[in-house]
Design a protein that fits this description.
The protein is α+β, with helices and mostly antiparallel strands and 406 residues long. 28% of the residues lie in helices and 27% in strands. Bound molecules: coenzyme A (COA).
Length: 406
């Protein structure tokens, strides 16, 4: 079931393919896949962008379609988005499994402090208001090597299958870009499962079972032929709960200041990392039921010394006789200072298992590879390209990226 891949950066074949003209991307401030990047910086100077790109009115849509906003403060509209993405947003998903972003996860992901409602864009059918395509953006300050830049973090580009290959994506991208420029932000960051232009880095996905019987039965994690359940359990069992686990407590309001300090210090080591305000940190890290989980270890003074966080994502399973859902968690941050990476990982994974999750997944950014190696993770099939818009940069190793992926 699980598809292996050893691919990390775009392959030669993909690069060759990308030599063919790209009607849209060739005119954007991005670097083609085939070009070697020797220095960092803006691709297009701002004055150029201002004259060429910013228009007052939205881009024209084909007859019968109209622009609209998804009001993420309205549960009915978030539900509509949730259903649309559940049906059609299946990027980089393993065969037979489709990812499901819950309504609350979408609320969390799209409403950080200072978000702009007019960056949550959709296209509807004029006659019946049917949702046909989406693209979203949230503002974020990032550190890129020695520079600090404001970016728009783009997500949820999705076009109804009946309208695919009709070039709605370029219109959506241009329209969101127009609105970003109007707010005096000139750069973007996004991830994608296909190589379109030169990525900053290419992340690999890893996973590890928690619910051993279920994952074994599903065959989600590949094993050698004839591997017995007994052996599978031996390989993937987690250490028993220890006294130390009980000290791992959910992040609470009282921890915010010291946890924020720990986070800020931690991300300084990476070349590409978010620069969060305390308010943003609270947004991304405070536990939310069914959305994200953060646990901390405290010292005797009550200061946070270690932190781990993950968010939960469910997969719908198609065509299995017994199971229709896979409850998975995505590693967000695992910051170990007073215990080693393996101990902290064993602790939070034990908690995730107790919470009823079946699987842990994560990308090899930050120091995660260390965790994957010592906790028997398996490399999965998906590569994730990390892109920047109007920012050329010498490629980064995945371990130089402290940016979290939703
Ligand atoms: C991705 C998706 C929106 C593309 O739609 P499409 O109808 O195939 O493509 P369109 O005809 O609208 O547009 C084609 C152009 O958009 C670009 N494009 C397509 N997918 C893209 C992506 N994920 N990121 C950036 N550009 C993309 C193409 O490269 C092409 O431009 P080019 O001629 O310069 O190469 C659509 O396949 C979809 O909704 N997939 C499911 C959700 C998904 O995978 N979203 C992407 C998340 S990264």
């Amino acid at each position: 079931m699980y598809i292996y891949s050893t691919q990390c950066m775009p392959t030669e074949k993909q690069k060759q393919k990308s030599k063919q003209p790209r009607k849209f991307w060739d005119k954007q401030p991005v670097i083609p896949l085939t070009e070697k990047i020797l220095e960092d910086g803006e691709v297009d100077v701002r004055e150029n962008l201002t004259t060429n790109y910013i228009r007052d009115a939205p881009y024209k849509l084909p007859t019968g379609f109209k622009w609209d906003l998804i009001d993420t403060s309205c549960t009915a509209q978030l539900t509509e988005l949730h259903v649309f993405l559940k049906k059609y947003y299946n990027r980089g998903v393993t065969r037979g499994y489709t990812k499901e972003y819950s309504i609350e996860t979408l609320r969390w992901g799209l409403q950080p402090p200072g978000y702009f409602p007019d960056w949550h864009i959709c296209i509807r059918q004029e006659s019946n208001n049917k949702l046909l395509a989406t693209i979203t953006g949230i503002p974020m300050k990032i550190k890129f090597r020695e520079k600090e830049i404001m970016v728009c973090n783009i997500n949820f580009l999705c076009v109804h299958p009946k309208l695919r290959t009709k070039r709605l994506s370029p219109v959506l991208i241009k329209e969101v870009t127009r609105r970003i420029f109007l707010r005096d932000i000139w750069h973007g960051i996004a991830t994608g499962s296909v190589p379109v232009f030169s990525p900053v880095s290419t992340l690999s996905q890893y996973c590890r079972p928690l619910n051993l019987e279920k994952i074994y039965e599903l065959g989600y994690v590949p094993t050698h032929k004839n591997t017995s359940l007994k052996l599978f359990k031996k390989v993937y069992s987690l250490p028993p709960i220890t006294e130390c686990t009980r000290n791992l407590v959910p992040l609470g309001k009282k921890h915010i200041q010291s946890a924020f300090h720990l986070f800020t210090e931690y991300v300084k080591q990476f070349e590409l990392a978010p620069i969060l305000t305390e308010k943003e940190f609270e947004h991304w890290f405070m536990p939310r039921k069914g959305v994200n989980h953060t646990f901390v270890l405290e010292n005797e003074k009550g200061e946070v010394t270690d932190l781990c966080s993950y968010h939960d994502i469910a997969f719908n399973i198609h065509g299995h006789y017994k199971y229709d859902e896979l409850k998975s968690v995505y590693l967000h941050y695992s910051i170990s200072k007073t215990v080693d990476a393996k101990t902290l990982s064993s602790l939070w994974m034990s908690i995730a298992k107790q919470q009823g999750f079946d699987l842990v997944e994560g990308f090899d950014n930050m120091k995660n590879k260390e965790i994957f190696d010592c906790m028997n993770f398996v490399k999965g099939g998906s590569s994730l390209y990390l892109y920047m818009y109007n920012w050329k940069c010498r490629p980064l190793e995945t371990g130089q990226i402290g940016f979290f992926i939703l």
